[in-house]
Amino acid sequence: MKKITFFLGIIVSILGIVSCDIIPESNWTKQIIDDSTPTDSTIVTKNVLVAYFTDQTCVNCPASSVFLDSLKTLRGDTLVIVTIHSHPNPTAAMNLVTDKGREYNAHFEANFHPSASIDGDNILTSDFWEGAINRRTKEETEIEMQMICGFDERIEYIFVNTTITSTQNISDINLLLWITESDIVAAQATPTGINREYVHKHVFRDAINGTWGEEITLLEEEVLEITKTFDISEKEWKPENISIVAFIYDVNTFEVYQVLEMKLFKE
Question: Are 30 and 251 within 8 A, CB to CB?
């Protein structure tokens, strides 16, 4: 099996500094999507991405968040939730809106909250989320993914290595790497008023490789390896609460072919 590796020049220079004694492999988090005992080489576990659109002024969103978390509890790693805030709340001590989040909200026409796109499909209300997730779970995918993450506390850089293989040639796809953070305490409107101690989960923070990611091409049985770094030295984020979400989607339809999530630090 052939192996193709891409490094940007800046990444090469950074990785020259970030040696193994700075990020020992024992501190990396690793995740693999494949079948440990596959009976058919074309069958790979299909994870599902929920892009959940919300805001801190949405009084009905906390209940929807609880519902999504209950689905996450049932499905575990096969369900990946990313909470995208797109309407600013001027009364909040911490505004969770990002420019990229606004762009995603506009692209998917999430004109009402709470709403969600399941695997890049059209926006749905909460009544239809579970059914859409169930249908996507039954889909097959030809793509396997592995990911290794690390964090250099000296220079406050995130390191992400993604390895992708496919059982067939696939083009017109992008790889997109998102950063999320959980356990953020900030204001949230609720049916009983503003809760200033509300704990926000899976909050979209930024995209490592651009708003829409980068174009890739997968060749049958070849290994594509991509390494990225991201500077969070000027961010008020807590690395221990950060997760990385990597997913591959069709650039024409935005259908998500595969998604993988992993925490930056082991629990």
Answer: no
| Whole-number CA gyration radius for the chain | 18
Domain count, the chain: 1
Q: pLDDT tens for residues 43-86?
A: 478 999 999 999 999 999 999 999 999 999 999 999 999 999 99
Does pLDDT of 36 surpass 70? no
User: What's the confidence (pLDDT) of residue 8?
Assistant: 35
> Which domain does 216 fall in, by range?
3-34+43-263
CATH of the domain at 182: 2.60.40.10
Q: Where are the beta strands (DSSP E) in the chain?
A: 3-6, 29-33, 48-54, 79-85, 115-118, 123-124, 143-152, 157-166, 170-181, 184-190, 193-200, 203-207, 214-218, 223-231, 242-250, 256-263
pLDDT value, residue 7: 36
DSSP 146-210: EEEEEEETTTTEEEEEEEEEESS-EEEEEEEEEEEE--EEEEEEETTEEEEEEEE-SEEEEETT-
Q: What is the pTM of this model?
A: 0.85
- DSSP H or E stretch at residue 253: none
